[in-house]
Fold:
Amino acid sequence: MRHFLHLIDFTTSELEGLLNLATKLKADLAKGLRPALLAGKVLGLIFEKPSLRTRVSFEAAMAQLGGSSIFLNSTENPIGSRESIPDQAKTLSQFVDALVLRTFAHKTIEEFAEFSTVPVINGLSDYNHPCQALADVLTIREAFGDLKGTTLTFVGDGNNVARSLAVACARFGMKFILAAPRDYGFPEEFLTNYRAAFPGETPPHVTDPSQAVSAADVIYTDVWTSMGQEAEAKARTLAFQGFQVDETLMAKAPGHAKFLHCLPAHRGEEVTAGVADGHQSLIFAQAGNRMHAQKAILLWLLGKKI
Structure:
C-alpha cells in the first residue's frame, strides 16, 4: 500500500504515469465517458482548513468514478482531540477505502498515515501541497507539450505550494526559480530533504523578480499570507512590496509565458486583475485539472487500471 504525501517519494516514471492517466481520464470525460472504476468505493475527507477546490474536486472525482465520499470537518471531528490520531486512523480505516487530509501541521498527516490501513492523500499541509503540484505540471504539459527544459518562476513566499512545485520541476527536468524576499525563501528542513533526493542541486532563490522572470515559460504566484499566518499579514504585506505579478512584470518575461495561481487569488495584492484574468492566464484550466489529476491518484492508490 502506498500513500500520496510527498512528490519526492515518487519516481519520475510513476509521476509520468499519473500525468498520462489524468490526461486520458480528462479526454474520456470530454467524450462523455464516465467509467465507474471506483463503484462501491468510499473516500473520507478530513479537513482542518477551509477548502473550495480540494474538497469539490475530490468529491466530484469520486462521483464521476462511481464512488462516494464522506466529509468530516474539524469542528465536529477535531483531529487528535476527542481521541488520539492512531485511534482515529485505525477506526476510519474500517469504513473507507482512502482518506484525504487537509491540515495545518504536516506531522498530523504523517502520523495519520503511519496508523492508517488505507491510503492517505495529502490534500494540503503547512509543509507541502503535492496534489496541487501534480495538477500544475499537467496544466504546463498541456500548454507546452514537453515539460523538460521548461522554466517555472515562482514569485512569492517559499511556501507549501512552492516546495511541491520545486520537487515536481526537479522530477520532470524543469528549471525552478524562487523569486522571494531574502527572509522568505525555502526553510532549511525542506532544502535538506531536497538535496538528499537531488544530490548536487539546490533550487535557485533570487530577490529580483524582474531577473527571475526574464526567461520564464511559466510565472506562478500565491497569496503572501497563507492560512495559519494571519498574525504575520501586515509584516508580509510590507516584505512583499515589489513582488506583485502585474502587467509590467509579465512584460519582462517572454511573450509566450503563461501565468498560474493555485487560488484563491487576492487581486490587487500578489497579482493584478489584469494578469489573473488576462490572455496569458491559465488559472481556471489549472483549477479544473485538480480533479483530473486527483482521479489518477485515486485510481493508482486503489489499484484500478484502465
In short: Residues 25 and 292 are 7 Å apart (CA to CA). The domain at 7-129+290-301 is CATH 3.40.50.1370 (Rossmann fold). The chain has a mean pLDDT of 96.
